[in-house]
Specification:
The protein is of the alpha+beta class and 185 residues long. The model has no long low-confidence stretch (mean pLDDT 94). The strands form four sheets. It has a six-stranded mixed β-sheet with strand order 3-6-7-8-9-10.
């Protein structure tokens, strides 16, 4: 006689009980360990983060964060994007001082071999469902940034920028990011 195995889905409370010195994400109730990114990933994250952070601060647009920073989408979905932005209009998402309590305006994920499928798949779906305004998928190997914008409840690809191009986004009027600066060796 076959036995039925129940799948246990974890909650935010379970997530909070994980060790503080290890990065995890909670995706549809599954606890996923997030390994440290490689050096190219970290260089791209630093360069892109510095430029975005400076622009956001100079124009007093809101708050900018680097991973690890918990983004609580639901009791079974807690993510730690590489970079994220919350506008002044949505600063209520930061009210508990512990985490971002909802969908940021911008989420940036930098692809790594161990995370690329999740970033392109389940995490993109979650960001669509919970209302992230703009989602950037950064590929450090191809040296591209693909921008996805919310359209009818779905994050749709709008433009991909690569070497020799300048990224502009409707989310940040006046921002000009030279891709050569982001992906320089």
């Amino acid at each position: 006689m076959a036995t039925i195995q129940q799948v246990v889905k974890l909650t935010y409370e379970d997530y909070l009980a994980t060790p503080a010195d290890t990065r995890y994400e909670l995706l549809d109730g599954d606890l996923i360990m997030v390994p440290a990114p490689n050096l190219k990933h970290q260089k791209v994250q630093r360069r892109l983060g510095q430029r975005l952070s400076q622009f956001i601060e100079e124009h007093d647009l809101g708050e900018f964060f680097y991973a690890p920073c918990d983004v609580f989408l639901s009791n079974r979905n807690v993510v730690q994007p590489d970079l994220l932005f919350v506008s002044q209009e949505r600063e209520g998402l930061l009210s508990d001082g512990e985490k971002v309590g909802g969908a940021p305006d911008l989420v940036v994920e930098i692809l790594s071999p161990s995370t690329a499928d999740k970033d392109r798949g389940i995490k993109r779906e979650l960001y669509s469902t919970y209302g992230v305004t703009e989602y950037w998928l950064v590929d450090p190997i191809a040296e591209t940034v693909a921008i996805h914008r919310q359209r009818g409840g779905v994050l749709a690809a709008t433009h991909t920028f690569g070497r020799g191009q300048t990224l502009r986004s409707p989310l940040f009027a006046g921002l000009e990011l030279r891709m050569d600066d982001v992906f320089s060796s």
